[in-house]
Amino acid sequence: MAKSKLAKRTEKGLLTPDNCVVTLIDLQPQMLFGVSSHDRQTIINNNVAVSKATRVFDVPVVLSTVEVESFSGRMWPQIEAVFPGQPQIERSSMNAWDDANFVAAIQKTGRKKIVLAGLWTETCVALPTIQALHDGFEIYVLEDCCGDVSTLAHENAMKRVVQAGAVPVTSLSFMLELQRDWGQKDTYDAVMDIVKSHYGAYGVGVEYAYTMVHKAPPSKYPKYVVPEASHA
Q1: Shortest CA distance to 7 belongs to which of 167, 218, 201, 186?
Q2: Cβ-Cβ contacts under 8 Å for 184 (sequence gap 6 or more)
């Protein structure tokens, strides 16, 4: 997506659009089937919100899948729709950091701060997080974009990565850290669009403020068309 250069955000230890890379690991049907630690629709929602935020702020994204044909299935179409045509690094390893192509894709961005989400937390998130930390990267785990086979598994994995030095963040906190200042009008409306679409009561409140306080027209969504029945 061609876009004008974003207004510069101060760093001083914070994430900015030009100092981090996002990686989404194993967002695939078979992996989501096994999640029981969180509401699965919420996990999809939060990952789509993060994906859209990376497009708004022009943050590089590395997508990776495991055993697409033999076990896990294709990456969720909701994610592919945000990154049409973007290559996905296919692996056999549970630990993405064991895959040379994955590590090379991260290194190619030249960024040392990795914002990471994936399924499941105890394997596809914890293992690459610990090894990337060992190799000198800073890791921010999008906790509400992850999930595991049990609440215990997810919580233990998060304790492990935090003890190793990773920083837990949420999908919304990540996006707001990139926005930082509501005076940054180059991204303001796009961020508000994500909020209205993906963040529940916060989004409804924004819609109310836009329409009732500022007298803006209501948000427009694509007209729903009932899919035709298959006659195969």
Answers
A1: 186
A2: 6, 7, 9
